[in-house]
Every structure is written in C-alpha cells, then in structure tokens.
Here is the input.
Amino acid sequence: MTPTPEVSIVTVGMNHLPLLKQYLHSLFEENKPTVNFEVVYVDNCSTDGSVEYIREYYPAVKIIENHKVRGFAENNNIGVKNSSGKFVAIINPDVMVLKGSIDCMCRYLSRNPEMGIVVPKLLNPDMTTQHSVRRFISARILLFRLIYKGRDDVSNRIIDQYLLKDFDKNKIQPVDWALGAAMFMSRKLYNELKGFDEDYFLYVEDVDLCLRNWKKGKPVIYYPESTMIHAHQRSSARGIFNKSRRLHLKSMFIFFMKHNIWLRRYSFMNRASL
Here is the structure.
C-alpha cells in the first residue's frame, strides 16, 4: 500500500511548458525532497504540449485537465481536493525549488502546528531577494501602486513600506501576506479556510487567503531557511488597459468590498510574536 504523502504539491499551469521543464527538473531531479511527496498538476487548457510532456517524462505526476479555462483560485482548490498529503504546498510553475527547501518547510510545519500559512524566501533569477512579502494594501497604497504602474523599483516611502524594503529577509518572522507563488500550510488549515476564494479569477486571491488566515488567529510566517527561485511574471504591469491589469483591478475591488478596506487598514505582522 502506498504511504500517505507528507506533502501534496499543487501546481497550476497554462501554456507554461518552458517554465514547467525547469520547475519539474528542480523538483524531481536536481533538488528532489527526501520527504514523501506527491505532485498534482492542474492544466488550464494548455495548447503547448505541457500535458504530453509531463506524461512522458514525469509519469508520477497526477494530471487534471480542464475542459474550460478556470481561475487560479478554483484550479488550486481542484488540485488540493485531488490530493492527500498532510501538508499542502501551492507552488507555481515559474518557481524552481532549491536543495532542502521542501524538506525544511515540512519540518518547520511539523514542529510548529500552531502556525498558519508559511512561505519561503523567494529569489529573482539573478539571485537577488524578491519583494515577495508585504504589508496589507490600503486605498492610499493602491493609489500609489497605480501611479507607478505596479513597479517595485521606485523610490517612494509609501511603496517602500508596503513592500517591506527595510525588512530583514534572513529572519523568521510574521508578515501580513506573501505572493502565492509558494505557500505551505496544513491540510486542516486549508480546509478550515475553505481554500482560495473563487470569487477571484486571477490576482489578489493570495492576499485574501492570508487576511482570512490572520482573522482566524493564525500568523503568516516568512521562513527564509526555505529558499526558492521565482521568475516573477508581471503581466499586469505591462500596460494601463491590458487584460491582466483589468483583472487585477477587478480582483482588488472585490477584496476591498469583501473586507471593507476603503476606510480602514489591516496590519497584523507587528502584533504577532513567535
């Protein structure tokens, strides 16, 4: 009988074949975890041969093929429902896992069951540290993000505070939220949160999940002993009126309405202690 996996890694892809090749190579060959794991891949109607490639070269991966395009939140929820590990890892195909990054995350979660969502340090492809952990957004911050077209490399006090640019990236500590490129949590917590909110088609579902996690009294923990490379795809910043930007703004509107953020600002990271 096959033992229950320690961790279920759920990945959603849509025409990401070049990135998938790097990601799966890092996961199964170059830096394979020692813990028992499974990978569930949800294919969002790819036309680039992603499914065929995975079937041929990584037959251990469980593939779920969509017959219509679904949102990021719904796809991840589908993947988790078709997995069985004690822990759930949401990992995007534009990530490359580094040696020990999965193993040490599982050890941390096992030793600290009171923690909520735990996220690794993310590096850019040039190995600089990515601004992957942030404060919760407010109407004022959103205005500045729009003015600067979502760019992170601007000199602005409001944006610097939002992106935690003065944050010690080598210290284990609570954060408000983190990019959904790599998120770990117990299956129990994922179920308690009812997964990602499917009202969001694309963008902001990671912010929403972290806020709901905090509202349940669970911290979001930045755990830099686990490190991964993230080739961040910022399609929403390429133009003012492109489809990605419109989807991002729509999701942001849903988030503000749902959590009544128009006249208030949430922040939990400075209230929590480890």
